[in-house]
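ping. complex inputs:
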Amino acid sequence: MVLKNIRLAVLLIFCLFSVVNTFAQDSSGASARQVVEKFQNELIAVMKNGKQLGFSGRYEKLFDPVSNSHDLTKIARIVVGKESEKLSEAQQQKLVEVFSRFSVASYAHNFKDYSGESFVFDSEEETARGGVVIHSHLAIPGDKPVKFDYMLKEKGNSWRIINIIANGVSDLALKRSEYTTILQREGFDALIAKINEKIDNYSKL
Amino acid sequence: MPMNKPTSCKRNIKFQQNFLSALIGVVVTLGGCATTEVAEQQHIAEKADPYENLNRKVYKFNDTVDNYVAEPISDAYKWITPQFMQTGVFNFFNNLKTINVVINDVLQAKFHQSAEDAGRFALNTTLGLGGFLDVGKNVGLEQNEEDFEQTLAVWGVPQGSYLVIPFLGPTTVRGIPGTVFDTAANPTSYVGLPVQLVYMLNARASAEGALKFIDEAALDPYVFTRESFLQWRNNLATDGKTETSLDLDVELDSDDDSTGKNNIPAADNKASRALDLYPETK
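pong. complex structure:
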């Protein structure tokens, strides 16, 4: 009888724990789809005020949304591939810092104005290695839609974007080819100088 | 004359194979005691673009020609031609290209799509005043992108190396017979030079946005163009079905701190170990 009671109590605690656990997951960690949609909404909001904000205004407004939805540290590490083993701790930190600024600057430059565009969710897919792909597209009035597929991985208890595939072209694969080639041919300092030059150009265009 | 084309392509492929094996030979010899794994690794890296040095030179040449000839003429064309005319001219040539799209739909056994594209062509040629208006788009008939290079891909012909052709730009070994066929199947190829010049001008003017994007975003424009070209062609050939294989999962796991080294897939692990061993065997 006592044993039965204990078993019941354990079961009850177990149930309670799982309820609390689900609740905790719901409130803290947003789902992959929520992370992507939140970021897309923030992007559209900046586009709507794009002209008034100017480049620096868009950059300021987008810095947190990009940093919070993308795993920029991980992306910066992947794009240098095996070359990262040759980089010192300080160089790796420098790369993450410059790469993060470049990512925000590209968004600020390429999403500068609004003419009725909207992001539409298409489907969600789990990959074999525990990632999630959110398929969506950017609907542009009077033009062909652009497919945006976001690849996310779990970081702690939240999902972070680590790759964007636009109309079948993977941003991560593209950058990795570029960055590893420059590191091999011209070295680390040249890579950083080139990225800084691009950020500078974006701010002037 | 056209009879010579396939022969020269065949010779090209054979030459390329010989060149590739010679290249691997050089890599192995230079590596001295390097293991075959290292040679394999380098072979894989150079597989897509074994002629990078030559390609880079041609790329630079094309870029110079574009900067000093094509771009100024294209800018002038854009300046004197109203936007609706540019769109009309684009639609006209695009409509003629649809004949080729229909042929390739059939060759790839996409019969439903071929009926759609044929309907689109008929609609635009008649109601669209010879193709100047894209009526098809307005009634929801989106244009499909098919060409002979994609057909060859569907038939299982391997892509071959990446090549940059003087004046014409990026292609692959498979792209050469593809372009020859597409040119032969496009009515624009059989009209006079002035029409072809307008076609080329309009094509350059329409590419303005993409070229500007590369200029602004690329750290290494050559690599940027190569990667985006190869990925874009691959995406077209597979009708967008390869997108999730592009998620670089292998690299992600091997770079993941939390998963640790134990999770590195066997092949990757082997490759990195081979690279570690390389200095010791020297």
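Chain A touches chain B at residues 74, 77-78, 81-82, 106, 109, 125, 127-129, 131, 133, 144, 147, 149, 151, 153, 162-163, 165, 167-170, 172-174, 176-179, 181-182, 191, 194-195, 198, 201-202, 205 (CB under 8 Å).
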